[in-house]
Automatic annotation (TrEMBL):
It comes from Actinomadura decatromicini. This is Transcriptional regulator.
Amino acid sequence: MEQQRTLVSSDFDHGAFSVAALRWFTGPWDPAPPPATGRRIGFADIEEIRQVTSAFRILDNRLGGGHVRSPVVEYLHTHVGPLLRDGRATQQVRQELFAAAADLTKLAAWLYHDLDRQGIAQRYLIQALAMARHADDHGLGAEILAAMSQQAHYVAQAGQAVDMARTAQAAARRAGLPVLMTECEVMEAHGYAAQEGGARACARALTRAEAGYDRATTAERPPWLDYFDEAYFAAKIAHCFRDLGRPVEVEEYARKSLRMDPTYRRGKTFNIAILAMSLAEQGRLEEAVEEGRTAVDMAAGLTSARVYRYIRDVLGALGPHAGERDVAEFMDYAEERLPALRVRAARP
């Protein structure tokens, strides 16, 4: 239990992702030998893990990481872990088992990331990457590397975000998944957007991503890539323009991103929030307050530190106009609906 507390409170290790990415390509990655003891497992066991993972992912998108983290970690360590250690299976089944475990482990990482516990989230991502390699699944490896890129961007490691995105592209190329390549290219663009002087490199990466988008969306994809559609792509582009400080383009793509599946409640909250920010930065205060109220209402009930960060950013964008009655009323409203934000401290 003491080790668990240490891991949960640990910090993001700035060098760990680079080492993990290098090992992805260079090894050694000797496959784990089939254990001599334990019960026989088959494809039915793997399908159960995939269905449970899918159900947890739906709940995460609707409720936020705080509501889902404990049962996911419990299931991973008490059910999936013993199968990996002790289950007897053919090599094919064992590879599929590692792939299913990698996907679930990536979800566990994302739940901790959503709660802003970045150190343990990073460790779960590294473990998920190792599992994907044992499964010899380059596509899933690319997806995990792209997640590493996003986390690196979130913790203000823009250079590392670019490196992870480019490594992810190499894995996606081996997997032959065009939609995954598009995702990795837009993640590369996002990393450049956060770098000083990175606007041109960002534009080049976005051009590559957009050029391959049509081909990407018509190709077959694995179930764990179902979320990537036109709305998700638009949201990623909006985030790039947000980092570049171009609110007009942010608004254009943020509005496109709202044509998304409504079951992705947390993602839609993000997208409405960045739309509100872009409107505030353009001086369109009435519209910004209206969208901000919608984002606050959607955030209520979500246990997500990332959502609270987006709401704080909306308040920050409106801060210079705090003397305006509508803006002041919105700040009071946000404080009432989301008291944990302590939004008064963010006012100028």
